[in-house]
Specification:
The protein has 1 helix and 19 strands. It has a 7-stranded mixed sheet, with no helix packed on it. Strands 8-9-10-14-13 form a 5-stranded mixed beta barrel. A 5-stranded mixed beta barrel has the order 15-16-17-19-18. 1% of the residues lie in helices and 44% in strands. With 301 residues, it is an all-beta fold. The chain is globular, with a radius of gyration of 35 Å. The chain has 3 domains: 73 residues, OB fold (Dihydrolipoamide Acetyltransferase, E2P); 78 residues, Beta Barrel (OB fold (Dihydrolipoamide Acetyltransferase, E2P)), CATH 2.40.50.320; 67 residues, OB fold (Dihydrolipoamide Acetyltransferase, E2P) (Beta Barrel), CATH 2.40.50.140.
């Protein structure tokens, strides 16, 4: 720490018969009272090249580099953000909570662009590369969603109270139920046409675009009804993935070029022509959670 020292004048003591304990202004010698004004520094003194200017940031020691340890990826929702202690409480996807510390060494990305910790908001989803420093979980980097103060979710409607303007959604990647507000500005769509809020029955598969106020309260801007329970849907497209153990087929629809997951019945007999790259037509029933294949036709070229 650098402390500026001001040189104090040293006055020699001289014996004088006229000396007095009182300090008198030199101008008072003529018998006229004069006020003593503080000395004002000149401009030349302020800009003297010999003066020393210290940046407070240079007085702080540099942070040590992060230890070279394998990082563990943790995803979840920011439940609490403490900017004083530089820590967040994360509600982890899959259940449980985790307290994670961060500091200026933590890199924060939003949509692939480097931002700062000031972009963190309570209630939004993040993925964190964490390392263990002793017993402390530390964030090496954080990845935020591309859209700020909002997002998009897909899941199944658990309940919808249009009279209260509330909808509860079971998201596809989170075990926690999501509460979403519905107001007069919320647009409900089914395909290419507008639908009523009353169409959002329990078991409906929906995609929701919402905005957030930063405190965990989400308001739906647009709700798209993807499937209603008990309804038959036909998909035509290319198989991009097969898991016969679970009966899962992932199809790339030739209609809207989106990816859909459909499930074969456990009694279905595998066909040698069913493989990634094959074009199929799948007639399915939506049971409120997934598409169950009623009939599958493989196109033969």
């Amino acid at each position: 720490m650098i402390t500026a020292m001001t040189a104090m004048p040293v006055c020699s003591q001289q014996a004088s018969a006229d000396s007095s304990s009182a300090i008198v202004s030199p101008k008072s010698a003529g018998g006229t009272d004069a006020s003593i004004e503080p000395r004002k520094p000149s401009v030349s003194e302020d800009t003297d090249e010999n003066s020393v200017t210290v940046d407070p940031a240079t007085l702080l020691p540099d942070l040590p580099p992060l230890p070279h340890r394998n990082a563990t990826l943790v995803g979840g929702t920011v439940e609490h953000l403490d900017r004083i202690r530089d820590r967040i409480v994360l509600r982890v996807f899959g259940g449980g909570k985790e307290t994670v510390l961060f500091d200026p060494r933590t890199e924060v990305f939003r949509g692939g662009k480097l931002v700062t910790a000031a972009d963190l908001h309570q209630g939004e989803r993040i993925y964190i590369d964490t390392i263990l420093d002793g017993s402390t979980v530390f964030a090496r980097s954080m990845r935020l969603s591309g859209a700020r103060a909002g997002g998009e979710s897909q899941g199944v409607v658990v309940k919808c109270r249009s009279d209260r303007g509330e909808m509860t959604l079971r998201d596809a990647i989170s075990p926690q139920l999501i509460q979403i507000k519905i107001n007069s500005g919320t647009h409900v769509m089914q395909g290419n046409r507008a639908a009523e809020v009353g169409s959002l029955v329990p078991g409906s598969l929906v995609s929701v675009r919402f905005s957030s106020d930063g405190s965990g309260r989400n308001t739906a801007n647009e709700i798209s009804i993807l499937a209603l329970p008990g309804t038959t849907y036909t998909f035509i497209g290319e198989v991009v993935h097969i898991d016969l153990r679970s009966g899962l087929l992932v199809l790339n629809s030739s209609t809207d070029h989106k990816t859909y997951e459909v499930y074969l019945a456990s009694s279905a007999v595998p066909d040698d022509n069913l493989h990634p790259g094959a074009t199929v037509t799948a007639v399915t029933d939506f049971d409120g959670s997934r598409y169950l294949v009623r009939n599958l036709t493989i196109s033969r070229h």
